[in-house]
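Morning, I've got a small favour to ask if you have a moment. I've been staring at a protein lately and its backbone has me curious. You're getting the sequence in one-letter code plus the fold written as tokens. I've dropped the whole record in just underneath, so have a look:
=====
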Amino acid sequence: MSPRLSPRHTAATLTALAASLTLLALTPGAAAAHGAVFNPVSRIAACYAEGPEHPVSQVCKDLVADSGTQPLYDWNEVNIANANGQSRQLIPDGKLCSANRDKYRALDWARTDWPSTSVAAGAFDFKFRATAAHSGTMTVYITKAGFDPTKPLKWSDLDTTPVAVYQTPRTATDGYYTFTGTLPARTGRHIIYKVWQRNDSPEAFYSCSDVVYGGAAKAAAAPTEQKIAAGAGHSTVSHHGHGGDPATPAPATATPANSGSGDGHSSAPQAVAAASTAGVAAGGFLLLRRRRD
């Protein structure tokens, strides 16, 4: 018969068990994904819509050749976890579209063959596909008159007056944020740059959308809900919110196949963490029981 644990040994064992459970709870799983601009179509959304395995545009083909397909499957993840309102200090010139993340470096390419959206001066309806809604501020800028799209985008290239500022609520209707801004008079090709800073977390999100006043050399298309659902199984990010935010459901027309769970969220990381936690707990209780017998 094993010796009975002393109160001191019992306390030590329980402390070790609690520490193990805490470490499992704090171990990060996949990063959370939060969305992308669908109107005007962002660079990453346009290339994902073409298909990560068989892109059509040369620039999207080159992106896959350079960085692989994963950045496209993770189309809704371009972020900085600890931006805390310091985007201009954290992101150097030439790295705005990627948020200075090497994974998304191809998004910074200064090329004129990115799929683009045709626009005109005046009111414009912006559309953001949110896979997790967050309370915060979405600020949208456009490049200044005379911008040269063959040169890397710099902070000084952006007009100081935003074309739209939208306070994002903690829910997104049918999976989208929609709001109206005003585009100034321009000619030729420009970039619309979005910064979405959460107000309940230091996290922020970024995107670049190519627009052409009066026409589009290569019209961009946003991903369909069927395309989003079909690629969910290849994503390395979770669609769950942070900081208590509710998860954003897919529109009613979305195809649920391959979404990973009934609510359209990738549940594998959470399931693994739960199983691991349960395993540690079970092991701890068995250990205590065995020593008491």
Q: What stands out?
A: Confidence is low (pLDDT under 50) at residues 10-33, 241-249, 253-293. The chain has two domains: 7-27+268-292, 35-234. Helices lie at 7-26, 43-50, 58-67, 70-73, 87-90, 225-231, 268-292. The first strand starts at residue 35 and ends at 39.
